[in-house]
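Repro:
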Amino acid sequence: MLTPLLSLLLAATSPIAGSSVNVAYAGSLVTPMERTIGPQFMQFCSCTYNGEGRGSAALVHLIASGLRHPDVFISADPALMEQLLHPRSGRPLISWYAIFARSPIVLGYSQKSAFGSTIARTAAGRMSIASLLETPHLRIGRTDPSIDPKGARTLEDIAQLSRSSGDPALLKAVQDSGPFPEEDLLVRLESGDLDVAFLYAVEARSRTVPSLELPSYANGGAVYAVTVLNEATNKPGADAFARFITSGAGKGKLAEAGLDSYRPSIRGNAREALRALGP
């Protein structure tokens, strides 16, 4: 029989059936979050999952400005978490965050592309990725570096590849390609509006989009971090979700989707983080 004190502790740390958990997450995770993680979490906790995927920098701006009030936030760049942990003004919006997974950048390609033979030569190793990207009229997709870490990493990686190959035209070819919203990039690629697009491996794998690997020396990739907001309206549900994706069944589903998961590395208040995530 549970003691009154133990009952209170369990009530404080267990999600309430029928309650809602609001999760703001990096747009690169939209497919696994909405197709598997969210639905499985709802079965696990008997509560309602509400997810919103956008560029991580854009979400940080929305949260910091008070336009979004999620319970949980997942960023594709841990550095953005520092803006919530140590804001320039006002109180911290989070007390900790945990780095828990990584996904490299790949060059996804459309099977509807008119440049299919050129892409096939590149996939077979008979043509370099640099030469492919410099193909005249090739439609290249990337995200906006000012609001999405993937867009920034794409330009950093291509700049490195451009320097290593002594080919400044490569960087210009990618820079001249117009940025697209994080939420639209995959749809445009799959529909054939784009020939190639810079994606995280988790995006390509979860949507079965064929892709080409970038050289390891020019591939920063995404590093994912999760946190529970200090003012989360459903703290027990938020903690349960954070545990679900870092050590529960959700971790395995993210790995299946293409994320390289590892033991969470905590920044900030370790006691609060361990209370949420467990030992």
